[in-house]
């Protein structure tokens, strides 16, 4: 399955400023597969090491982190010669050996001719930095997210449809009705399957939503296990409470995160560490309210008002135990949840395309779902789960702040009218 990360990795390989690369992201987003596929196609050989399955590896790095010492030993352990420029060295589950992270500094300074990528699922939260320093400034860093809608369509063999979608987005011209309906069908399938590569693969092989759900449940269980393994004892229960509560928050008309919905009398001080853990692990995405839509947006964020979204919309459906047919056939029983689910989907697409998103509210209660900086302009995005594109809040925003244009995401076809660019939900990746 094609992943956009391949383009970044290819540029990294040929860059004269290349440093050792840290590829991070939540579990099961395809880090190892992407790296090994990249190594298979771009290098003569790959020397792969896994700190989780090879305890001797940790001892090796504890003995010395000098590249001159490590290279011969790693060559012997992998059973192949590690050659400068021609071998890709891969260190997986690196969060289990902080000493290996520190070694990247010396690979950068003393052995830049070796190409090395390390991968880890919980680098933001699992590494204890009391003994060894993180190699600040000596590494390149990249985060891999679940597959977005474009990657899902390409995996389904729909490259022509992707091209048509991109053309219509660029020119604000409606898709032919047949193609529009077909793309909406793929969009609803994506809501159920999500972007975890293993889930997408299972779906394409079997078209069996029950098997996909089983795979998603296993991913969710691995997240729960990580909450116990890489968390302090008194934070485990709080972290699980917050994670379980996110689906409840998204079912509310106001999707802003509310501590009182976790439990009666809950306060920020009690749960802020748990939310930070989930955010750093890549399991959830947190977006803040922006008080004024001005550059730089980060300067105007309200740290006390935010929304949380699950990192993958398929996992959201699995957590909520939503039946696939209810999503595919637009069951009215999901009416209370459709808005939050659609917002979560759009957030996933924006995050996968490396936007830092915010939301906006007025003093009188108008709310715009997402505020982003696109092509140097601050753009508001309004999200609707159906073809009802009446957007009173968006109109309030436009009257107040006069953006160059706005984007409305719904099930309506492409178009542009009154300064609003109408984009079907299946094309959110184009943004």
From TrEMBL:
Residues 18-153 form the AAA domain. It holds the Pfam family AAA_14. Residues 225-385 form the DUF4143 domain. It comes from the Bacteria. InterPro entries: AAA_14 (IPR041682), DUF4143 (IPR025420), P-loop_NTPase (IPR027417). PANTHER family: ATPASE. This is AAA+ ATPase domain-containing protein.
